[in-house]
User: Fold this.
Amino acid sequence: MDPTEKTMRAYDEIAEKYCEKTMKEGKRNFQKMMLDRTLDHLHPKSRIIDLGCGDGRDTEYMRKKNFDVVGIDFSQGMISLARKKYPRCAFLDQDIRDTVFPDDMFHGAWANASLINLPKSELSHAEKEIYRIVEPGGLFCFSFKEGKKEGFETSVIDENERYYSYYSLDEIKESLNLFNVFKSEICPEKVFGHEFIYCWARARR
Assistant:
């Protein structure tokens, strides 16, 4: 079983517990502030894809602000939970490295702590797919854990083993070939013991 498959199955098993804990203890107010800053870069009613949507909380937040949004996640457990919690939103069981969407469909993409579960060797595949489905010059906001390592580790959230990749800001900028990072911000407090960095980037034309 490859790292992504094993991680996906782990999320299937703990979807509800994981989402309850991250909602209560995951610095939600700061995340919403970062999401608001992302939406400020987009026109009203823009089409947005929520990559690794989890239980759909961000998808619902954007929908309520009148954006045309769809959430995807590779965990069927997460998608089932999202559909149950937010029936007015659109959710699909999809891998961010290979989606069903046509070229240039979205004005922006939001990936809150979802790229961190891909091996670093797979980041370029995800970037190519996001670039394909986002319009030229489109917005891409994502967050990641600050560090250098990658591999399986036991999550402090639920004591379940999953794959994690950590990046420095310089490393993530060097790793991206199709997007230009124009802004970044570090979460002022650690989230479950880790430092998170948010980046805003534009698709190269």
